[in-house]
Amino acid sequence: MVYIPGFLISKVYRRGSLRNIEEGFEFCFVNRMTPLQISGMRGLSVEVDGRLHSADKIQAILSGQPISLSEGALAKPIAFAKDSSLVIQVAGEHLSQGKHVLKISFITNEYGGASLKVSDTIGESEPESRWSRLKKRLAGKRERMRGSPLSVEGELGGVPLDPDFGRLEAALRREEPDRVPLFEAEIAIPIQEWFLGREINSAQDEIEFYIRAGYDFVPVLPPFFTPRLMRTAPDADGELSEGDRTRAWLTESEGIIKTLKDVEKFPWPQAEDVDFSSFSEVAALLPPKMKIIGMLSPAAIFGNTSQSMGLENFAYALYDDPAVVEALFEIIGSTYVKITRRLTQAPRLGAVFMSDDLAYTEGTLVSPQIYRKYVFPWYRRIGEILADARLPFIFHSDGNILPVLDDLAECGIQALHPIEPQAMDIVELKKRHGDRFCIFGNIDLDHTLTRGTVEEVEQEVKKRIRELAPGGGYGLAASNSVPDYVQPENYRAMVSAAKKYGKYPIRV
To answer: How far apart are CA 12 and CA 7, in angstroms?
Structure first.
């Protein structure tokens, strides 16, 4: 599913829209990000307070028109313009008064899927308690403080909280900062909420999480959506867990785009319409030394192009119909170049992170020559824009990217993430290429963070700091991201151990 930061969820969900209607209840989303067109929606799942509602009881109404929830599509796409609404109606019993937790996931025919959780209230279930009134006063105080830099006190791993992007900048220059910085591209909302001890409902909440978890930056995403087909597992018997029921994956054998005509008729979002308002919102709340990392993700030029066709179809088209491939790369690559130019003007921007998976465990997904012909020219243009703006260029790819490291360096990329243990030896990578790249990542997701113990996490963090931190140019992170199936206690152990053992000079 597409990762939606907590503060973007708070922007797209219309709080206070949850209400009982004659047939059941409804709630509403508002498009505050970028104009889209949608011809259908599937895999819609609505869960309220842990109870899953059957799909045949759910109705989606987009811009006043019912939208298909089947595998098929409407005869004509419906515009999901900025500030227009998507209403979800659920037939059945009314909801009781009071607070309810809504979990929603869906897949659109054009842009893939998303999964999110929000809370909303219908009336008041009982007279307010003193604690309830106190919480409201505190919430009101936080509301009055919006727009002012956030100040958070405390410690992590025995180290006072002191977010300072200069720490990450030193690592990006391959120098030794005061401590090994933490770095993550994506942290699942349930993990953030567990760590913070409350729901993520605003930019302020998410910034507080990043401070308390020891980061020197907050990632902010300019939302740009391209076509992709996704699937969820069938659950006719109702035996799947909640996570397995809502988790979706990209298909490799099918895609929205098949022909040049499909490319021409698809309603491609325009770079000029991408919403950048979250950058100003977050910038106004950051402590003085904290900065933003702008995220060109969850997939960039190669990922969005290949996923729009399905990787198998894309591979065939490289030889059977290269005009389709060239047209896709031109549209997507040029749009990312324009988005990057806009991104360099964002306030409090410290670096730019681009996610574009080029490889699997054994090697690159396609021949490096394909990347050199279609992909790396766009990377170079982005790298030139960022170099002119004096912004570091951080790159993420899964798998073994050793065959294209020279190309990535020539594109102006200064840091690599996440260095999967099964794909590359991070110690050897830093030894051979640490003079060109800062290295982020490598704490194992296959076992340590997901199935290991807190003690195993601490030992692996110490090992990586001992092997990689001397000389600088290293930031500690998971070996891909921090998904919702990571053990929360293990995540806390990772960030705490980084602070505890990461002080320079390294003595672990």
So the answer is: 9
